[in-house]
Write a structure and sequence with these properties.
Elements lengths: L12 H9 L4 H7 L4 H12 L3 H25 L3 H11 L37
Length: 127
């Protein structure tokens, strides 16, 4: 007797690994292979004997290294935006804005102080 149901979805692992290296999410990978996230989870467990999260972490790290290498190459090649961003991320560099307030002719700011005294002993009058 033949089994009924959907045909088994096979995963093209070279393509799967490329998606992991691009740090694609489980949802995105499932969409790419036109299957459910559960199917991806099961196929990884069957083939690699580890969870999707473990496999993805291992495979995505090489993609992150490649991206970091490209960022450093861009910065060292003169990309000022990348230099600034990497400096903020890794060298504790920050944008700093200083605002100074001065009064007339660069002097101190004049402040007027008004003191209000309330006599609490006054009785209320009916109108």
């Amino acid at each position: 007797m033949a089994e009924m149901g959907r045909p088994r979805i096979e995963i093209e692992w070279t393509e799967f690994d490329k998606l992991c290296q691009m740090v694609a999410t489980l949802t995105e990978i499932a969409g790419w292979f036109n299957c459910s996230e559960d199917t991806i989870e099961r196929r990884v467990k069957e083939k690699h004997k580890i969870t999707f999260a473990e496999y993805h972490k291992k495979k995505s790290s090489s993609g992150k290294i490649s991206l970091r290498r490209a960022q450093f190459k861009a910065a060292l090649g003169g990309n000022v935006t990348m230099m600034i961003w990497l400096g903020k991320q890794h060298l504790d560099q920050k944008d700093k804005t200083t605002t100074e307030h001065t009064g007339a002719d660069g002097g101190p700011i004049k402040q007027d102080v008004t003191v209000l005294f309330i006599d609490s002993t006054e009785s209320k009058q009916e109108v």
